[in-house]
């Protein structure tokens, strides 16, 4: 039976399931998005219009925050958040090195210094203890990432930020709708989301900053629009980091569909975890309700390339997120100062992780193909 209890069996994709590749992502843009885009094109408001404002309100409300400031991407959402908090040269921001490059690059673009701390092995997210050990008198912010859609330990990070007087900046680019003890990620501190095409919902390109602080919201709006409000003087250094009306129109439709897609991702994750052998599935962590932007397993180091080749030969796409820690990217050469960089769990994750398809477009036949392919893998002795 198709529905919320079992994966779809009878979608049009099911007939092609035997031969077609099982893709790692499946951006879904349907007739409603098309109609919303055409309505924008038929009008005459393309920027700073009513759809951006409505999308900001709806996305913020969905996550239990008071204000949303929509941006051109997740990367610019992070940058605008840092600028609005006045974080810049001489300041340090604690980030994980096991994340997408943009997490740390945003700190550099703001003129501040990223300080890399280790992750906790169970969640793949920044470890609160490691983050605290990295705090210095120059630390201005701590930036947990809700990686793969798994909430970071927001009780610990809220307490740490409060006690040490730090800005809490959530990189929620991968975690639309995820909750920590029943409360949405993105509502604990200032947060940044991405709507890139492969995310759990998309505006093709786009992002948003959430906050419940009215004064910060004012500064965010300035930073995203050349530091200017209306026709007044430019009171802050900012840039053009705005979202356009086409993106917002798509985003409003996608947001309405997000709860159903999230339910399907969770269902697919449960289906895989109940059946996969050999690999270690994502862990259940009490109080955290992830949204499975990725379904990321671990396997013994040294076996990953052969499992990927085995799955590829059976028409199943996989990805390694992330094969290299950010601090080891060539762009960070010469930018690490005197950091000790003892990040054993980060290095282990880079060696062991593999992401399998989990998106909402999968049907039962495709999930069964993934299970069969993984479970027939025979590691080299
Ligand atoms: C953890 C993380 N942070 C930031 C970003 C940046 O988002 P965008 O690609 O929309 O600029 C991404 C997206 O890829 C991400 O995964």
Structural class: alpha/beta
What portion of residues belong to β-strands? 5-15%
Order of helices and strands: HHHEHEHEHEHEEEEEHHEEHHEH
The level 1 CATH classification of the largest domain is Alpha Beta
Note the gap between the termini. Answer: 40 Å
CA radius of gyration is 21 Å
Q: State the shape.
A: globular
CATH superfamily of the largest domain: Type I PLP-dependent aspartate aminotransferase-like (Major domain)
Q: In total, how many beta strands?
A: 12
CATH topology of the largest domain: Aspartate Aminotransferase, domain 2
Low-confidence stretches: 10-17
Please state how the strands of the largest beta sheet are arranged side by side: 1-9-8-5-4-2-3
Q: With helices defined by DSSP (H or I, 4 residues minimum), what is the helix count?
A: 12
Total domains, how many? 2
The share of residues in helices is 25-40%
Largest sheet: 7 strands, mixed
> Which hetero ligands occur in this complex?
pyridoxal-5'-phosphate
CATH level-two architecture of the largest domain: 3-Layer(aba) Sandwich
Mean of residue pLDDT? 94
């Amino acid at each position: 039976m198709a529905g919320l209890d079992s994966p779809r069996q009878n979608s049009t994709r099911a007939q092609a399931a035997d031969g077609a590749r099982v893709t790692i992502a499946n951006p879904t843009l349907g007739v409603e998005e098309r109609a919303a885009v055409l309505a924008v094109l038929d009008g005459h408001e393309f920027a700073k219009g009513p759809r951006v404002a409505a999308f900001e309100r709806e996305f913020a409300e969905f996550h239990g925050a008071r204000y949303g400031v929509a941006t051109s991407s997740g990367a610019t959402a992070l940058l605008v958040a840092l600028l609005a908090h006045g974080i810049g040269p001489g300041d340090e921001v604690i980030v994980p090195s096991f994340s997408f490059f943009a997490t740390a690059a945003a700190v550099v673009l703001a003129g501040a210094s990223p300080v890399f701390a280790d992750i906790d092995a169970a969640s793949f997210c920044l470890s609160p203890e490691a983050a605290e050990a990295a705090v210095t008198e120059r630390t201005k912010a701590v930036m947990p990432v809700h990686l793969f859609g798994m909430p970071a330990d927001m009780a610990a990070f809220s307490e740490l930020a409060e006690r040490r007087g730090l800005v809490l900046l959530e990189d929620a680019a991968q975690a639309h709708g995820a909750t920590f003890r029943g409360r949405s990620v993105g509502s604990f501190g200032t947060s940044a989301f991405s709507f890139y095409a492969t995310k759990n919902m998309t505006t093709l390109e786009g992002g948003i900053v959430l906050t419940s602080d009215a004064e910060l919201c004012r500064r965010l709006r300035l930073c995203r629009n050349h530091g200017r409000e209306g026709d007044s003087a430019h009171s802050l250094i900012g840039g053009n980091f705005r979202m356009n009306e086409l993106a917002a129109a798509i985003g409003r439709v996608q947001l309405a569909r997000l709860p159903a897609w999230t339910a399907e991702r969770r269902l697919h994750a449960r289906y895989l975890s109940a059946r996969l052998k050999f690999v270690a599935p994502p862990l259940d962590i009490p109080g955290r309700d992830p949204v499975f932007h990725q379904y990321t397993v671990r396997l013994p180091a040294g076996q990953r390339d052969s499992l990927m080749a085995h799955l590829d030969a059976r028409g199943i796409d996989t990805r390694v997120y992330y094969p290299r820690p950010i601090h080891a990217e060539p762009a960070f050469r010469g930018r690490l100062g005197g950091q000790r960089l003892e990040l054993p769990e980060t290095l282990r994750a880079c060696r062991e992780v593999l992401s399998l398809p989990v998106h909402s477009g999968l049907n039962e036949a495709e999930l069964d193909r993934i299970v069969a392919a993984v479970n027939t893998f025979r590691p080299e002795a």
